[in-house]
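Lab notebook, bench 4. The sequencing result for the construct came back, and we need a structural model before the next group meeting so we can plan mutations. Quick request posted to the team channel:

Model the 3D structure of this chain.
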Amino acid sequence: MGDSRLALLVAGVGAVGVLHTIVPDHWAPIALLARQRNWSRRETARVAAGAGLGHAISTLAIGALAFFAGALAAQRLGRYIDLTAGWALVGFGVWTVIEGVRELRARQPLQPATGLPSRTALMLVLGSSPSIEVVPAFLAAAPLGVKAFVALALVFSIATIATYVITCALSSAGLERIRFPAFERYGEVIAGSLIASIGLTFLVWFRP
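Done. Here's the predicted structure in token form:
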């Protein structure tokens, strides 16, 4: 049962890492700056990787707090941590869907801009925004041990950084035809739905 739970959580955070990052709000500023300043692909990839790394670190910092708090709670509350984690996943998933829909209604088309910030500032701004929707997954992994945390952290980080690099490199190279418009537009909504579905699975399938 533990292996099934871990596999579900790992697959979930990996998918969310991609879906959350593929939304243009994350990678498009880097691509625009790369085009404006004629960066090489290597330089673009380096900045994108830096932003992705910062994004992963800020998320994992919160995820670590959730994981270790959940591990302490599991020692005292036992089976109730699974219920808490399940409802947290559902709640955060629904919240992400709602916020994603609100952003879709308010989002303006991205246009080439002047006066863009330096690459260091851009990496700091983009990298400091954590992916809150995956935090309950770390809480749900608490009863599975530190190896589960490491697995989730690695998969989320790799998925996030790789998506940053790939989307920025393709866009800055003028390869707009290689795009996934549905995922770019509805990435947050899909990610939230996925997290909520994982929460429901924990409540129904893995309930004590």
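Residues 2-110+121-204 form one domain.
Will bring this to the meeting.
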